[in-house]
Amino acid sequence: MKNVLLKISIALTLLFSIVTPAISKPAQAATISYLMNPTSTFEYTDANGNYNYAFSDKFNEYDWWKSPRGYLFVKETNEGLYETNIPSHVPVQAIAYPIVQGKKWEIFENNKIVDGKLVPIYYSRQIESTNSTVITPAGTFTNVVVVRQDRDVENDLSEQTPPVHVVTYHYYAPYAGEILRKDAAGKIVFQLTKGTNLKVLDLTPPAVPTIGTVADYSGSIGGTAESKSKVYAWAGSKKLGEATASNGKYSIRISRQKAGTVISVYSVDAAGNKSGTRTTKVIDRTAPTVPSITSVTDKSVIITGKAESKSKVYAWVGSKKLGSATANNGKYSIKISKQKAGTAISVYSLDLAGNKSSKRIVKVLDRTAPKTPTVNKVTSKTVYIKGKAEKKATVYVYNKSKKIGTAKVDSKGNFKVKIKKQKKKSKLTVYVKDSAGNKSKVKSVIVY
After folding, report:
1. How confident is the model at residue 271 (pLDDT cuts 50, 70, 90)?
2. C-alpha distances in angstroms, 182 versus 32, 149, 170, 171, 178?
3. Residue 362, Cα to own-chain centre: how many angstroms?
4. pTM of the model
5. CA angle (313 as vertex; 346, 332 as ends), nearest 5
6. Could you tell me which of 327, 332, 284 has the C-alpha nearest to residue 305?
7. For residue range 176-209, what is the model confidence (pLDDT) as tens digits?
8. What is the DSSP string of 357-377?
9. What DSSP line would sit under 196-235, residue for residue?
10. What pLDDT is attached to residue 111?
11. What SS3 state is found at 246?
């Protein structure tokens, strides 16, 4: 109801007021507006203390702002930004458009009696800067227009007292209007101290992003970063990828990188501030290929094979370590003590990053011939040739080139080969073969 009454009152004032020169219709002066943002609130400090302005309504072409100290009506046209406390009065042209450094204009203030006549009094304004950055308690503003005002302040309107020349500097920020005022000595006489929904400049760089472990098999990298900042990943001069952080986290898809590659990440926030850079090395998490092993016999004193260069190859029999060696040019050689035939030897390798290969197991081959068998006396009446030989070996009996019998040696080393009766003075040959195919020396026997 109060607003309605005030509107009626102001309308009547306009109706009966002295007609003043017309100002062009409202228009957007530039892509950047220096009108106060109606969705914001503004709190100021001057010599009389703190006070605030809040948007009330539109009144004709004006934005109507309320304060405990009164009203402020502001509008923007092709000619500039205008302010007044009473819309029926000629408004003050706070800024003249287009904004050009050095641009100067005059503002009517009042009339003065000179030689008995009323003479209009003007003061001047001039644009000192078109793109300043200004820090206030409410924040840091960019694209600030600095206007110098030169005014001769009259003690009275007679010509008896000379005027006092006063210089002030007025700072206007986009979407915030006047945010700061200084006197000729640079002392702050008015400033914006607080506000909501202010379009202030963010000059604070984001925190340096963190990076999780990156392995040589990784298809992405992730970590923490300022929400809504864009995080970039590079390997030297090559860009690996980018992503926008959400809820303080980011994840960037990358191609797999070689172990030892240095990856750097940084972030850029919405205001264009760039964080510091964090680097990490790609960790080797790829196990070496399984070492190969050449044949190992019961006579071998070294184990050889192929393995990843610079990896360390270990040889074990059960829980007993036989030896180790570092692979050079893809090959290794490990000194060992002779092992029994059938012994299972396992080998594996560890690379410089500590990755362990799978094991390869090889059995020691039997390459030792059995001892020459002993044979009991054979007569022309013998139908079983008996003797001793390596356990579980196979005994062969020949008469010249004809095999006349064969049998297995039992677990006690005894054998018994069934043969047909042989003629006296026949020469028989006996030898054994073990399970690995090793053949003993031949034992000759004469039939009695």
Report:
1. confident
2. 24, 10, 7, 9, 11
3. 46
4. 0.53
5. 110
6. 332
7. 999 999 999 999 999 999 999 888 777 789 999 9
8. PPPEEEEPB---PPPPPEE--
9. ES---B--PPPPPPP----BTT-SEEEEE--TT-EEEEEE
10. 85
11. strand
Helix (H) or strand (E) holding 335: strand 331-335
**Two tokens at 141?**
């503003």
Place of tokens 């070492």: 291
Measured at the CA of 343, the angle between CA 337 and CA 347, to 5 degrees, comes to 75
Higher-pLDDT residue of 87, 178? 178
CA dist 87 and 11 (Å) reads 9
Query: Quick one: tokens of 285?
Result: 């998490």
Q: What is the pLDDT at residue 8?
A: 39
CA distance 242 to 250: 9
Question: How far is 411 from 415, CA to CA, in rounded Å?
Answer: 10
Q: What is the dihedral of CA 373, 376, 377, 383, to 10 degrees?
A: -100
Pairwise CA distance, residues 393 & 442, whole Å: 14
CB 432 within 8 A of CB 396: yes
Convert the pLDDT of each residue in 382-412 to its tens digit.
Answer: 999 999 999 999 999 999 999 999 999 999 9
| Best CA proximity match to 384, nearest among 443, 428, 441 | 428
Q: What angle do CA 280, 284, 286 make, to 5 degrees?
A: 145
Written as six digits, the tokens of 410 are 């039992």
Residue type, 233: A
> Cα-flanking dihedrals φ and ψ of residue 205, to 5°?
-70, 150
Q: What is the largest CA-CA distance in the chain?
A: 174
Half-sphere exposure of 176 (CA within 13 A, CB side): 32
Q: How confident is the model at residue 272 (pLDDT cuts 50, 70, 90)?
A: confident
Instruction: Work out the angle at residue 280's Cα, subtended by the Cα atoms of residues 279 and 281, and round it to the nearest 5 degrees.
Output: 135
How many other CB atoms sit within 10 Å of the CB of residue 141? 24
List the structure tokens of 76: 């923007």
How many helices, marked H, and strands, marked E, lie in the chain?
1, 31
Let me know: does 96 contact 170? Beta carbons within 8 Å.
no
Tokens encoding 177: 């209007």
Q: What's the Cα-to-Cα distance from 147 to each of 4, 101, 171, rounded to whole Å? A: 36, 9, 6
C-beta separation of 286 from 217 below 8 A: yes
Mean pLDDT of 224-241: 97
